[in-house]
Amino acid sequence: MIPEFELWVKASNIDKMSKGACPLCHQWYMVAYILAENKLASFKVITVPENCPPKILKDKSTSGLFPVVVGITGETTLGSVEDFVADESSELEAFFDSFKCPLLSMNSPGQTVALDCFIDLYRVFNLFLKSNTEKLRDKLNNVMKRIDTHLKENGTKFLDRDVLTYADCVLLPRLQHVRIAGKIYVDYEIPAENKYLYRYLLSAYATDAFRDTCPSDPVIINHYQKKAQKQGVEATLMKETTTFHIPDYIDLTFDEEEDETTQEQDDMQQLSDQIDSVVVDSTPNGDAASEHEAEANGDDTDDAASASSAPTAEELIANGDVSSNVTEDKYEGELVEIPAVVETGEMKSVRDEMPEQEGTQISENGSAVTAE
């Protein structure tokens, strides 16, 4: 029997229910997801309001740190995971390393080089948000160039291999924050010249491990409201969308020997465009976003009004534009019907599998959260 555990992560500051924007929580969520994809573990993810954790969690972890791993059953190289609790960084690293998944090896030479190429990314980004200067903008651009150069020289789809590894789980959550929050607060976009980096993002956006664990754009923006120099951004009024595409003006033209890879990226962009055309309406009455919400999100009113006529995921599947498939539940290993396109990236099967616990309730998106 494969080991089972719970992963407690910070909830969104907006609704206190959906997954939050903590990059460390997202990092370990991706790691756990990859373990489950490779049938090495089974886990449940539980979202928790940071300032109001349930008693059941406080009894197990008193540090106040997130994420928290709570072992349920099974064994790893550490021994039995039953009642095992990890919340410190060193404990989390030891726990996930004990599964001995080759993709998640943290200290291999390839991982060391990959991690080093963006070691100062998040520090520079946070400084840039607090002090919007050209010097810090240049420093952030230099980090992007280092990542781009690494990808070009390595010749792989991701940082170390052609599949996601541990280094990608560290980089991608933070890179997504740079794209989403950076654009809103300091008008920052990754320079277009970094085409290998943009190709990397497209590759990541096509993976379940990133899409299903990624918080929405408003949640990411809200995460930095008190940290950024620019104030007055109302993320709570923004439409519930998640960016899984790159700008249209990015030229992904490569040398002849890379034609095959380029075609694959074109296919990814086409799929991403189809996915982003699916509107998941979060308003109670099912109407399109209001003019006020559209303005807060930077959209034209006409664009918001036309959103209601966009095809649904089911319509895309019925028309043959996107195929339907049977996807294995990455948490419990049971086969469930999940449309190939799910814009919000939420795992739809968690709700049925997760038992309610004292002090928690099950939200509509399947996550367990603290009852108010």
TrEMBL record:
Disordered, as annotated region: 280-372
GO CC field: apical plasma membrane; cytoplasm
GO molecular function: chloride channel activity
Domain of life: Eukaryota
Compositionally biased spans, kind Polar residues: 358-372
Record SUPFAM superfamilies: GST C-terminal domain-like (SSF47616)
Biased composition (Basic and acidic residues): 345-354
Protein name: CLIC2
